[in-house]
Amino acid sequence: RADGRVSVFQRGLLGELRSQWRTALLEALRVSKLLLANSDQHSWRMNLYPYLCLLEDQEYVDIMLQGLSSLSPNGESLLIMAKELGNRVQNKYCIRQKSQSHMVEKLRRIYDRYAELLANDTEKRDLLPREWWEQLEAELSSGPSLVGDDTQWPHFLVVQLGTHLVDLMVRELKVYSNTLSPAQERKLIPILYHMYTFRSNRK
């Protein structure tokens, strides 16, 4: 069917574009990190460099492309998009820290034993489920603590980190203007852009 062929073509085209965007974002991220690492920033501006080193470069690019995939066709407020990207970085970092501390493995062992207790009909019911859980925690007290450090990053840091990633996307994500209409002039155009509106006297 014709519409099926178009769909396959479009999926292939999108895959090719995403590969190009991934390469461009990866290079732009690395360049921006070098600039931040060597810049002498004033105290009023947070140096983002340490927060751009918490994950692998490829993981930041994945987060940016995921943010692009979930973007509304009508666009999104810069603040909302920046917060979303910044929060994704923080969440991935927290999960990585818990995994590296073997907290996840310990939690799995406790949960497996807890499920066995609940499923065992012959087990004495002298403890409430919550008391069983606490007892299992006490029995497996050695090793990593289950009380993780889930301290939230400051709001301005999350937004600034996300804004840095959004700026890279706006600058680097481009497509040829004649991609779907070969008869048009062929030139690179951005797929994202900032649009300013006025509310009272504020832009």
TrEMBL record:
Spans traversing the lipid bilayer: none
GO biological processes: mitochondrial transcription
DNA-directed RNA polymerase N-terminal domain: residues covered: 2-202
One GO cellular component term noted in the UniProt record for this chain: mitochondrial DNA-directed RNA polymerase complex
MF terms (GO), sorted A to Z: DNA-directed RNA polymerase activity; mitochondrial promoter sequence-specific DNA binding
Pfam families found in the cross-reference section: RPOL_N
Protein's name in the database: DNA-directed RNA polymerase N-terminal domain-containing protein
Gene source species: Aldrovandia affinis
Record lineage: Eukaryota, Metazoa, Chordata, Craniata, Vertebrata
